[in-house]
TrEMBL record:
Name of the protein: 6-phospho-beta-glucosidase GmuD
Family the UniProt entry places it in: Belongs to the glycosyl hydrolase 1 family.
Gene assigned in the entry: gmuD
Signal peptide: none
EC assignment: 3.2.1.86
């Protein structure tokens, strides 16, 4: 398996380390879009896709929550440019369940500090990629983190606590509003 990590740990990387049995003891890097995106985009073109939605991984772009990673910027510019070269409109999602581990340690969506960090991340994405990307989505299925992470124990942070789930949902809405405001 090729190494696919050059960014900091996210909640999935951490979860795999501490509870491999939840993942049937499989390897954490299964998709490998990092290396296969040119071929994946070529296949999308052959299938006559006119758009393709992908996500920007927060930890790849801003590993510590403050510093922009030039390797992450280059990677996403390459992906976006490859889509455009193939007449495929990029649709970029900003959060697909992959909370940076440092942010989860600060409370995840229970923390207003993380809400502000997400707004900074979103603003950074809009500034870096907005000239080539017309459509951004802030969250993929925002209720999943709340249901799985705070109500039913099948998603990080695995805290079955209704009140925390409601707070996480509220704060993720605030994060969405702050991102859109940017």
């Amino acid at each position: 398996m090729r190494k696919c990590l050059f960014w900091t740990t996210n909640n999935w990387d951490y979860w795999f380390k501490i509870e491999k049995y939840r993942f049937f003891n499989q390897q954490p890097c299964l998709n490998d879009f990092y290396h296969s995106y040119p071929e994946d985009i070529k296949i999308a073109k052959e299938l006559n896709f006119n758009s393709l939605r992908t996500s920007i991984q927060w930890t790849r772009l801003i590993p510590d929550g403050k510093t922009i990673n030039p390797k992450g910027v280059a990677f996403y510019n390459n992906v976006i440019n490859e889509m455009l070269k193939n007449n495929i409109k990029p649709i970029i999602n900003l959060f697909h369940f992959d909370m940076p581990h440092w942010a989860q340690e600060k409370g995840g969506w229970l923390s207003r500090e993380v809400v502000d960090a997400f707004a900074f991340y979103a603003k950074t994405c809009f500034e870096l990629f907005g000239d080539c990307v017309e459509m951004f989505a802030t969250f993929n299925e925002p209720i999943v983190v709340v249901e799985g992470g705070y109500w039913y124990d099948w998603h990080r942070p695995n805290e079955v606590y209704m009140q925390a789930g409601m707070q996480a949902q509220w704060n993720s809405l605030i994060a969405h509003f702050k991102a859109v405001k940017e």
